[in-house]
Amino acid sequence: MGTTDPSNSLKVLLFPWLAYGHISPHLQLAKKLTERGFSTYLCSTPINLGFIKKKITQKYSSSIHLVELHLQETPELPAFYHTTNGLPPHLMSTLRNALVKAKPDFSNILKTLKPDLVIYDVTQTWTAALTAAQNIPAVKFSSSSVAMLVYLCHLLVKPGIEFPFPAIYLSEFEQKRAKSDLQDAKADADESDPQVQRPTRYCDSIVLAKTSKEIDKKYIDYLYDILKMKVVPVGTLFQEPVVGHYDDNNNELEFDNNILEFELIRWLGTKSERSSVFVSFGSEYFLTKEEMEEIAYGLELSNVNFIWVVRFPTGEKIRPEEALPEGFLERVKDKGKIVEGWAPQEKILGHPSIGGFVCHCGWNSVVESIEFGVPIIAMPMHLDQPLNARFVVEMGVGVEVMRDENGKLERGVIAKVIKEVVVEKMGENVRGSMRAVSEKIKFKEQEEFDEVVKLLKQLCEEK
């Protein structure tokens, strides 16, 4: 298992958006498909393929093939910015436009490779026209929650009509930001965007989604009601840890970081069961000074043990002690660990001393927390995260740190929620819900992926 003969297997080309949070689920899906006899090809920019290469173990080396897509280099967008990782926010639209301009190159890849099927990121809807031109079946893949996806689709196709599931909502300041994001997405999309219009091919009406019907069924059904989109769950695609450690810029970490991992796990071993929180906001969001201060004071006020991963933009020479409140490191030296850049997230979340995960609610982090049964202390920052946070609360697997009317975090609220989850009785209820959700997903995982395989083979045979 894990190796296939390319001459006898169906060829699937996967085409993710240029963000690690999208690339990792595509890679995990590729791994699962190779275990079912498919030969998989993953297409991205060279800088992203450097990241992917490190994640492919020997088991998959002969069945997952990497395909380079070269974007045009400009002074504003050199090759090292052909990824969202470390990309200055003002260049995001520039990167999206650069990818759209690479359509002819992607079309040539299709002509050369002649895949039996293309799986493309739900954000790259223009891919469908290119595959249709070459009579190649293609399906969208969403690495976000379906609750989030259907909420945004509802805004697009039913503007002004209230979303029928009140648990999923955006606050006033979040709505303004979402409106801006949707306008950007519309500007970058094709006029024939099948995300907004009715599909013309059967395969265009299918969305593979990183979820399970056990948690997303009503949202899956509603997406079909409003767009006739058939959502096919692929499971949570939990990412197995890879031997060797790499930072956010694909550099292999030095031996010092292996020592760091050992020290962090040893430190957790000195703490009592479920007494600590892990704090991380993903690899592509950088906290403002104000956010960092409020979170620091919130952790301190909670009096709970913590490991906090802090990150700063590439090239900025900032030390944690400069960004954190004066005297903070000294005051929390027995209770907390500040780690810059990288930490062994899977090993930390899997440690019995961890009683909560303070996170931004990127969908990959939510899924990982569910996998380890760790309650979520939701602190969404942007993009899909606020909607994911509401879904986390609806499932009963976490509690959200609510912001004030201006969208600001407040240290007292942060401390209160952390204590509720880690110290008080509410935490027991959340842990119980988390266990139930995790068990339901795992029970259906094999059966749901059988359906995925059956569908993809059917699409390949019918082209």
TrEMBL record:
EC code(s) of this entry: 2.4.1.-
Domain Glycosyltransferase N-terminal stretches: 9-152
Keywords: Glycosyltransferase, Transferase
InterPro entries listed in its UniProt record: Glyco_transf_N, UDP_glucos_trans, UDP_glycos_trans_CS
Swiss-Prot/TrEMBL GO biological process terms: glycoside biosynthetic process
Keyword ATP-binding: no
Cited CDD domains: GT1_Gtf-like
Pfam families noted in UniProt: Glyco_transf_N, UDPGT
GO MF terms, alphabetically ordered: UDP-glycosyltransferase activity
Top-level EC class as recorded in UniProt: transferase
Family annotation (SUPFAM superfamilies): UDP-Glycosyltransferase/glycogen phosphorylase
Family to which this protein belongs: Belongs to the UDP-glycosyltransferase family.
Protein known as: Glycosyltransferase
Originating organism: Cinchona calisaya
Classification lineage: Eukaryota, Viridiplantae, Streptophyta, Embryophyta, Tracheophyta
